[in-house]
Design brief:
By secondary structure, the protein is mainly beta. It has one domain. It is built from three helices and 14 strands.
Length: about 260
């Protein structure tokens, strides 16, 4: 059972992807993300809560986490109220929410995937994987047990793939999610299964208190976070094309915001 981390936290982690099928490809990159309480008052004094340390602010700063970037279409999100509505429609009413994401840098924001984490009674009961592609489309996958029991690290939660992410993968098959969220570290695994093809992705790393020094470290290690992510996506796409991977045209995005 996952314990409740003390937010805000910094994830100094690593993401790995391994492509399955006739054209093999793998990648491994360092990532810098934050795990915050999206309902905390970011401008409050320390004794009033757990504010985000400067330079990480909700409104504007060198680095920022803004509600409009999450919980709905990019740039038109509603933040935590949206997440609670999505969860509430499934009868999930958590005590606390967390948002694991990459902060925007100045005017730029891009997150291939962010995670809304929902705890009840100190246990992780639901995760919303908020997926965004490079064309500005977004779809979210809600992961939870139908009976509402906590999500254990060994549990596998599945969802049909209905959203176009990569032009080198079909919109077919399903995802298998596994979440191990502990106060000191996390391990998230996502396996896209489509016959002999698919992608195995993993996000791992320690969770560090996001004090002022940690926020500056995040800024210095990846000052152009969203732009770096986009550059890496295009770099690996070029390598796949050179390897002969088949291109799939972008289909229309799903009409519903979340599934299943």
């Amino acid at each position: 059972m996952s314990a409740l981390p003390a937010m805000p936290l910094r994830l100094a982690g690593r993401t790995t992807h391994r492509r399955r099928g006739p054209v093999s490809h793998s990648l491994s990159h360092r990532v810098e993300m934050v795990l915050i309480d999206p309902e905390a008052n970011a401008e409050a004094e320390p004794e009033a809560g757990a504010p985000l340390p400067w330079p990480l602010r909700r409104r504007f700063g060198l680095l920022a986490v803004r509600s409009v970037d999450h919980g709905g279409p990019p740039g038109r999100g509603r933040g935590a109220p949206w997440a609670r509505e999505v969860l509430g429609r499934r009868g999930i009413r958590p005590d606390r929410l967390g948002l694991l994401t990459t902060p925007r840098f100045l005017w730029w924001s891009f997150n291939p995937v962010s995670f809304w984490l929902a705890w009840k009674g100190g246990a992780l009961v639901a995760v919303i994987a908020e997926v965004t592609n490079i064309w500005g489309d977004r779809h979210s996958y809600l992961c939870h047990h139908p009976d509402g029991r906590p999500i254990a690290p060994e549990d596998t939660l599945t969802a049909a793939k209905i959203f176009h992410v990569s032009p080198f993968q079909d919109v077919a098959g399903d995802y298998a999610f596994r979440f191990d969220i502990r106060p000191e570290a996390l391990d998230i695994r996502i396996l896209h299964r489509n016959g002999a093809e698919g992608v195995a992705a993993r996000l791992t790393g320690p969770l560090i208190p996001l004090a002022r020094r940690a926020a500056f470290a995040l800024l210095l290690r990846h000052p152009l976070g969203p732009l770096r992510t986009l550059a890496l996506i295009h770099w690996h796409a070029a390598r796949l094309a050179l390897k002969g991977a088949r291109w799939r045209d972008r289909p229309a995005p799903p009409t519903q915001e979340t599934s299943p």
